[in-house]
Write a structure and sequence with these properties.
Layout: H1 6-18, E1 25-31, E2 34-40, H2 42-48, H3 50-55, E3 62-64, E4 67-72, H4 77-89, H5 99-111, H6 116-129, H7 131-136, H8 138-145, H9 152-164, H10 167-170, H11 180-187, H12 196-210, H13 223-233, H14 247-254, H15 263-275, H16 304-314, E5 331-337, H17 338-341, H18 345-352, E6 358-364, E7 370-375, H19 388-393, E8 395-398, E9 404-408, E10 418-421, E11 429-432, E12 437-439, E13 444-447, E14 450-453, E15 468-481
Parallel strand pairs: 1-4
Antiparallel strand pairs: 1-2, 3-4, 5-15, 6-7, 6-15, 7-9, 8-11, 9-10, 12-13, 13-14, 14-15
Helix pairs in contact: 1-4, 4-5, 5-6, 8-9
Length: 482
């Protein structure tokens, strides 16, 4: 087996970088007062970067006094030195670097087609080690990376973080300068946790800033001014969830902008407010959010948006109900995960026993489907460990009027969910030694690695698929408490 001595190689190459006497390429980077020349070796650059392999090829290079001359004004000297250090030695030290330098390094490494491992490391470093800086500079970060497919992870992190705590972002002074594609992606999200009227106010402010020669004095606006604002906001107006705006706020803040709202949308809004009719096809349903936390979930099976739907179901609210501060909040404590604790009756019953309100989530194999059940009385070992009836007969039914079982088409499906509530209260839970859990005599039942769904017996509403057996891929149980 060959011996490897990378350490000395890295040191020697570092000396070549810092004190080159046989270089053949001068790279000038930066612009204005921040310009610097680096003496480099084209053979090393071309070997480490497909970008330089093409840019420094014989067909493209410019020479002066037999020296290759190359310019990259869009990369700062600080960032380019980090790149050269990595290219020559494989070393990268970000500890003392500013968040802006690290962000620029991310963009430069993507442009120069450097190793994927470098790009991944820098992107993860921003998310994990520069969290505070990223949160303070969401607009800068998003404007910089938005549209780059390679930066999807950072984009997603920013958007999800904004949705969890959007007020600082929407109230920032530089919000009106945000790229319209970023704003569009934010407004179309269901999990944006801010009052809808605040979103409307900020959208109007953004639209005014983005419309040339409009001005803030609305009293002086003419027909052409309104027409210009309507054109600016045309793609955003349908994304507002008007059902989340009170009648008073609609009258005071939305109605004055009637002329910028398409006629068919405004007609449906008025019908909703004045006739209490349900939203039809034009108006989107309310966001699944609140201005306060109702229970973060550390699930590998569902996204937080589905947890909020389940919380509404626990409170017998409509799926799209917008919770207020007067509604009870819930916490979900993970107490069992199949991939961690083992998927078996024994491991499930050991972790999930007792009369504690419980939520069970199941991801099945060969499908995106998610199944689950909620029981206000717990799901197994509800009596004492030495319950005489359970020992004698091997099973015991328990009573609950609050239980329900459900399904989602995938981990973030908010359109095709199904729920079946208990109808035979005395048979809400079957505590059976041969199963992990059993909602209503196999309406939803775990037997080791199998999930039985026979939702036709009548103990629960017959809304889910019936008489099917799935293989469990992942399963989680949470204690639910206020």
């Amino acid at each position: 087996m060959a011996s490897i001595f990378h350490l000395n190689l890295s040191k020697d190459l570092s000396l070549i970088l810092d004190d080159a006497d046989d270089y053949n390429a001068i790279i000038q980077v930066g612009e204005n007062q921040n310009i610097k020349e680096f003496h480099t070796h084209s053979v090393i650059l071309r070997a480490r970067s497909p970008y330089f392999k093409a840019a420094l090829s014989a067909n493209w290079i410019t020479k002066k006094n037999n020296m290759i001359m190359f310019s990259k004004p869009n990369i700062t000297p600080t960032v380019f030195y980090m790149i050269l250090k990595y290219v020559y030695t494989g070393e990268l030290d970000l500890i003392e670097q500013s968040g802006e330098n690290i962000l620029n390094l991310l963009i430069a490494s993507d442009e120069l087609l450097l190793d994927e491992e470098l790009f991944k490391h820098v992107q993860d470093y921003l998310i994990e080690k520069q969290t505070k800086w990223v949160h303070k500079n969401f607009v800068l970060v998003l404007n910089t990376v938005f549209g780059l497919d390679s930066c999807k992870k950072l984009q997603g992190y920013c958007l999800e973080s904004i949705c969890e705590n959007p007020f600082p972002f929407f109230s920032s002074k530089i919000f009106p300068s945000i790229n319209k594609k970023i704003l569009f992606d934010l407004l179309k999200r269901d999990d944006l946790q801010i009052d809808e009227i605040t979103i409307w106010d900020c959208l109007i402010e953004w639209g005014i800033e983005q419309t040339p020669d409009l001005g803030n004095n609305k009293a002086k606006w003419n027909k052409n001014n309104h027409k210009a604002l309507k054109k600016t906001l045309n793609q955003f107006i349908p994304l507002i969830r008007y059902v989340g705006i009170s009648r008073a706020d609609f009258f005071d803040k939305v109605r004055p902008y009637k002329t910028i709202i398409p006629y068919h949308i405004y007609e449906e809004i008025e019908e909703f407010y004045y006739k209490d009719s349900s939203p039809k096809t034009t108006i989107l349903p309310p966001r699944i959010c609140s201005t306060f936390e109702i229970g973060k979930i550390e699930s590998n099976i569902i996204k937080p948006i589905l947890a909020k739907i389940i919380i509404n179901w626990i409170d017998n609210k409509d799926t799209m109900y917008i919770r207020t501060r007067n509604d009870p909040s819930y916490r979900l404590k993970l107490i069992y995960r199949g991939s961690r604790n083992g998927i078996s009756n024994e491991s499930f019953r050991k972790k999930c026993k007792g009369r504690v309100a419980s939520l069970v989530l199941i991801k099945v194999k060969d499908s995106n489907k998610v199944f689950g059940g909620y029981s206000s009385i717990g799901v197994c070992s509800l009596g004492n460990d030495f319950d005489d009836d359970l020992i004698r007969h091997g099973f015991q039914f328990y009573n609950s009027s609050d239980n329900f079982i459900f399904s989602f088409e995938d981990s973030e499906d908010t359109q095709n969910m199904k729920i079946s509530r208990v109808v035979s209260n005395s048979h809400a839970i079957l505590d059976h030694h041969a199963s992990g859990f059993n909602f209503g005599r196999s309406s939803l039942c775990m037997i080791n690695q199998s999930l039985y769904l026979t939702n036709y017996i009548g103990n629960y509403e017959r809304n889910l698929d019936t008489n099917k057996i799935y293989t469990i891929e992942e399963i989680e149980t949470y204690f639910v408490y206020q």
